[in-house]
Amino acid sequence: MSNGGTIRLTNIRIIDGTGAAPVENGEIVATDGRLDYVGPRREHAPGVAPVRTLDGGGRTVMPGFIDTHVHVSMSIEDSVQARFSEAGSYAKYKTARRLRETLDAGITTIRDLGGLDHGTQRALDDGLIVGPRARIAVGVVSPTGGHVDMHLPNGECAHPSVDGVHCIADSDDEMLTVVRTLIRSGADVIKVCTTGGVSSPTDQPDDLGVPEHEVALIRAELERHSRPRQLAAHAQGAAGILAAIRGGVDSVEHGYGIDDEGIELMLEKGTFLVPTLSSALRVPDPALVPKYLYEKKVRWSQIARENVSKAIRAGVDVALGTDAGVCPHGRNLLELAHMVELGMSPAQAIVAGTANAARLLGLSDELGTLEAGKVADLVAVSVDPLTDIAALADPDTVELVVKGGVVVKDLTPAAATDARRTA
């Protein structure tokens, strides 16, 4: 249906994303893509005529989830041969499929932190392809030999499929030029690498990348522009995390090595942590990845488990982000189970994936909670996420997805009933 009509959900349990207790036997009404009513089921006054009524069958309804760290133009399943040989147009079709899979998994908004371009973002906005709404970084910035420099010592590129993501800057002037170019290319967020990384071939997560003064330089550049943009830092080692926070980033991505000083500084400045546990805790088959990557994964997965858990206990603001592309697409809500494993309650994990994620993206006036006046993004699931949050990792448990008032993944015919009603 178009977003020009009214949709009513009844016989549902509502978790609204604020952290409040669920509403039993609830009702949600949305008109023209906006939420009209969220609360206990009511008797409708005369003249109210929903054009579509859905019986939720006791399912739990939550806000559409927001994944603040994805790479939909990349896939961990792609072989090195595929990266070299696939034509660009074929890769675009695969990206479109991943976007659909992400939406079907219950993610109605993404922040793509390297790879997705403005053309694909516009195609999503205009409905030419189906997927979440997207905020984009376009490219990722690091120095030569840093995290996004994927060249091996022999000069060959280890990951040719992400060549367009590489943005190398080795001086203040080069940094400003790169940032301005990314803004011209449609970037909603600038992503810089203040450390090396697990997947990059010639550096380590403890290595320093973009220095603090250049992070501050980018922050000042972004503030020259009337349109708000975010600043995110790939930051894994402790020193680079501190450089990112002191330089003024909005979010620390990964944050595996965060120490007590970093935690205290994040709490002081209100910096978000996006721990990407779906990637951090996933140790790949050593037969399928280079030796350097496997060895770093084993070591840094344990480091992440210890330090991110400490940050969660300290009360650092956490937003859901998976690093999908470095881990499988379409299983984004596995991240919630990992958050619970490391110390969150299921309700807190849901807030991290809804209200907190919207706040990080500057979208909390529109998205992130089920409240009258906000955009009608919601999902209905067949399990109780407060007692079995791990089940949400299976996209089949997400049985209904509504984005902007449009049903984009429908209930089974037996569970959904269309009805034109008069009061």
UniProtKB/TrEMBL annotation:
Recorded hits in Pfam families, A to Z, give:
Amidohydro_1 (PF01979)
Q: Where is the Amidohydrolase-related domain?
A: 60-408
What is the top-level taxon of the source organism? Bacteria
* PANTHER family according to UniProt: ALPHA-D-RIBOSE 1-METHYLPHOSPHONATE 5-TRIPHOSPHATE DIPHOSPHATASE
- The name this protein carries in UniProt is Amidohydrolase family protein
Q: Which organism is it from?
A: Rhodococcus olei
